[in-house]
């Protein structure tokens, strides 16, 4: 099942999505005693993070990680961890446990095993997955045309190292199997061009390996899928 939630402004989107996520985290805590969520980075989620961090829920039982990370120091401007620490892990959400996906290893490939071990301690499957989508149809750090894409889509591991063909920085990404097992999959996008891209991606009739990565995740995910969008 895939539902579109169209909001009339970015502020409304941030609030509605934060309400929706908070509800899902609360349900997970009530049902299983804890909640695991993977959030995305990039330019889109900061406003939603600020709306989510003040929600009344037992944040001490929430484990937060990333759908993907850029292989940069955690204080780098491009770090998804930095974005998450500055915008989400504040106020009430400061009590949550954050699982970082970067280490001092020189490359993402060299650091992958350490990140894998950290991720193994998270609730599995994840209760909530928030995906962004790039203008090239990438999601998490599953980039079209990346040399490691197929490995990251078929791996038994929780995470994979990826070198984007064009975008900066090596990445760690949750693998397609890990992403697609989440109990709830939410795509958070803004702007007309991303809406059109996603609509087209959902209509494509191509072999699996040629589909946009966002479509591959949505195809494989068996949970309810929700797209939250505003212009
Ligand atoms: O590189 C990344 O890009 C995507 C999309 O980001 P946006 O800036 O277009 O919102 C993001 O979902 C991902 O986490 C990030 O590492």
Automatic annotation (TrEMBL):
Q: Which Gene3D superfamilies match?
A: 3.40.50.1360
Q: Which GO terms describe its molecular function?
A: 6-phosphogluconolactonase activity
The entry's keywords:
Hydrolase
> Member of which family?
Belongs to the glucosamine/galactosamine-6-phosphate isomerase family. 6-phosphogluconolactonase subfamily.
- Pathway(s): Carbohydrate degradation; pentose phosphate pathway; D-ribulose 5-phosphate from D-glucose 6-phosphate (oxidative stage): step 2/3
Where does the record locate the signal sequence feature?
Answer: none
InterPro entries listed in its UniProt record: 6-phosphogluconolactonase_DevB (IPR005900), 6PGL (IPR039104), Glc/Gal-6P_isomerase (IPR006148), NagB/RpiA_transferase-like (IPR037171)
This molecule's function is given as: Hydrolysis of 6-phosphogluconolactone to 6-phosphogluconate.
Q: What is its EC number?
A: 3.1.1.31
The chemistry this enzyme catalyses reads: 6-phospho-D-glucono-1,5-lactone + H2O = 6-phospho-D-gluconate + H(+)
**Methyltransferase keyword on record:** no
Keyword presence, Acyltransferase: no
Q: Which organism is it from?
A: Iodobacter ciconiae
Q: Which GO terms describe its biological process?
A: carbohydrate metabolic process; pentose-phosphate shunt
Question: What CDD domains does the annotation carry?
Answer: 6PGL
- Residue stretches in coiled coil: none
Q: What is this protein called?
A: 6-phosphogluconolactonase
Domain spans labelled Glucosamine/galactosamine-6-phosphate isomerase: 9-221
């Amino acid at each position: 099942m895939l539902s579109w939630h169209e909001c009339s402004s970015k502020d409304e989107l941030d609030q509605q999505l934060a309400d929706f996520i908070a509800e899902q985290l609360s349900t997970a805590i009530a049902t299983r005693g804890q909640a695991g969520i993977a959030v995305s980075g990039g330019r889109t989620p900061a406003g939603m993070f600020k709306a989510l961090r003040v929600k009344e829920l037992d944040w001490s039982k929430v484990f937060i990680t990333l759908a993907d990370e850029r292989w940069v120091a955690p204080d780098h401007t491009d770090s998804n961890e930095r974005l998450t620490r500055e915008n989400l892990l504040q106020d009430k959400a400061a009590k949550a446990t954050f699982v970082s996906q970067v280490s001092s290893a020189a490359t993402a490939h060299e650091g992958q095993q350490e990140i894998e071990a950290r991720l193994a301690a998270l609730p599995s499957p994840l209760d909530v997955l928030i995906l962004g989508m790039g203008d090239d149809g990438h999601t998490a750090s599953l980039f079209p045309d990346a040399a490691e894409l197929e490995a990251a889509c078929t791996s038994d591991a929780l995470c994979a190292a990826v070198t984007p063909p064009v975008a900066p920085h090596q990445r760690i990404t949750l693998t397609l199997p890990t992403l697609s097992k989440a109990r709830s999959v939410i795509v958070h996008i803004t702007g007309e061009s991303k809406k059109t891209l996603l609509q087209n991606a959902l209509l494509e009739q191509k072999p699996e390996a040629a589909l946009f990565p966002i479509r591959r995740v949505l195809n494989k995910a068996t949970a309810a899928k929700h797209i939250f969008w505003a212009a």
